[in-house]
Write a structure and sequence with these properties.
The complex is a heterodimer of chains A (131) and B (274). With 131 residues, chain A is α+β, with helices and mostly antiparallel strands. Chain A has helices at residues 57-67, 113-130, and strands at 10-17, 24-29, 31-33, 41-43, 50-53, 81-87, 102-104, 109-111. The longest helix of chain A has 18 residues, at 113-130. Chain B is mostly beta strands and 274 residues long. Chain B folds into two domains: 2-115, no CATH class; 168-271. Chain A binds chain B through residues 1, 4, 7, 9-10, 15, 21-22, 24-29, 31-38, 41, 63, 66-67, 69, 72-74, 76, 78, 89, 92, 94-96, 99-100, 126, 129-130, and chain B through 156-158, 160, 174-180, 182-183, 185-196, 198, 200, 202, 204-205, 210, 238-242, 244-245, 254-257, 259, 262.
Chain lengths: 131, 274
């Protein structure tokens, strides 16, 4: 499988959730296309129809909050974010075998051994059930 | 070309109201064999009446009207009827309503132009339709949302307000880390890899409510469908539709558990009111 290259005009943010939800990894666009400006953006004078925005703490926290609404449309509570951290594309593990076991220890994105064991058990049970 | 051919010919303007009209007419008299005499007359019309703005030529002269302007310097509309008489028959050349500040010009070719208060030529007086050329306006956001006008033109910056047009487009690639591609992505600010087989999309300009139609699909991970785990199904995760975000999930067709599974890419669009 060809190695992915880091996309331009993007910042990546690792978002740690509550409720045992997997770590979320956001691709925050610093440049986009649309007919209306999103919050914190300005039109790109060199490219018609494109906007740019700085990945400032305020724009990132706004985006994280928007991507994690606290409630669903029927009032169902949704997982909430506890903290987030800007990471590089290269910091994100490429092997997704245990993607849902990823956690952010504050320095790196690492796999949590307890979560790996839980995933293995679930897969084994599923395989057994499928037979 | 407007010719007054004999001593009975003249050009008149009938005004429908007392709004003041300034008239300036220029003309050239030709007399055989080779005499040309240029002249002009200014007329101020202040009542609703019939006024001669270009009189008859004298003797054997022919009068070529080379230009005529009439400006409404009043504060309300005044409709001008411009008549040409050859002494026997009176014909109406033009009948034009002039709003305050507007003016008309008949050039030396006899062609009429009406100018607005900013000096721009008014392109027509009737609305364009399927069969009639004329004025055409631009559709507003409300016009686009009602989606019924057959007379208004759509501009690129408002086409997305039509209910039949997708309000956002999200397309991702990358099996190790989902990455949004722009274009074709549109009206998006971020995506979030929420876990295996899970993607949250965040829209730049939100819908006006949570009631909007989401369509999602995915790029499969193989052409081989002999294993049911390679057959993907995409759906919207329960309770995640908000005005500005939605989470879509992909599961494989594993018989007993329907496990979440990563696709090669996601494609998500939405329709609704923004």
């Amino acid at each position: 499988m060809p190695k992915q290259t880091a996309p331009a005009d993007s910042v990546f943010v690792a978002i740690t959730m509550d409720s045992g939800e997997p770590l979320r990894i956001m691709q925050f666009l610093t440049c986009g296309r649309g007919s209306d400006l999103p919050s914190g953006a300005v039109w790109d004078r060199t490219r018609e129809g494109w906007w740019t925005r700085e990945p400032s703490p305020s724009t990132i926290i706004t985006e994280v909050a928007r991507s994690c609404p606290p409630f669903g449309p029927d009032g169902t509570p949704l997982p909430r974010y506890l903290r987030f951290r800007v990471v590089t594309f290269e910091d994100i593990p490429t092997d997704r075998t245990f993607r849902d076991a990823l956690v952010d220890d504050g320095k790196a994105l690492v796999h949590d051994s307890k979560k790996i064991r839980a995933i293995r058990s679930e897969r084994a049970a599923r395989t057994k059930g499928a037979r | 070309m407007l010719i007054l051919k004999d001593t009975d010919s003249l050009l008149t303007i009938i005004t429908s109201s007392g709004e003041d009209i300034d008239v300036c007419a220029s003309f050239v008299d030709f007399d055989t064999p080779d005499t040309f005499t240029a002249d002009s007359t200014n007329t101020l019309i202040t009542t609703a009446t019939t006024t001669t703005v270009v009189g008859s030529p004298t003797g054997t002269k022919k009068r070529n009207v080379t230009g005529l302007t009439a400006r409404n310097i009043g504060v309300a509309i005044n409709t001008l009827t411009i008549n040409n008489s050859d002494g026997t028959t009176v014909v109406t050349l033009f009948k034009v309503p002039l709003n305050a500040g507007e003016w008309l010009l008949i050039n030396e070719a006899g062609v009429l132009f009406v100018y607005d208060t900013n000096g721009g030529v008014k392109m027509g007086a009737s609305a364009a339709s399927d069969t009639v050329a004329g004025l055409i306006g631009l559709a507003t956001q409300a016009d686009m949302e009602s989606a019924t006008s057959l007379l208004l033109a759509v501009t690129p910056g408002r086409s997305h307000f039509h209910p039949g047009v997708a309000k956002f487009v999200c397309f991702t690639t990358g099996t190790t880390t989902p990455v949004m591609k722009t274009p074709p992505s549109y009206n998006m600010t971020s995506i979030t890899d929420t876990g295996v087989g899970r993607l949250t999309v965040t829209i730049a300009n939100d819908f006006s409510s949570v009631d909007w139609a989401c369509q999602a699909t995915c790029v499969g991970i193989s052409t081989t469908l002999t294993a049911i785990a390679l057959a993907n199904t995409v759906y919207i995760r329960f309770a995640t539709m908000a005005a500005g975000t939605v989470e879509v999930n992909v599961r494989d067709a594993t018989a007993t558990t329907n496990a979440l599974a990563d696709p090669s890419g996601y494609a998500v669009c939405g329709w609704g009111d923004i």
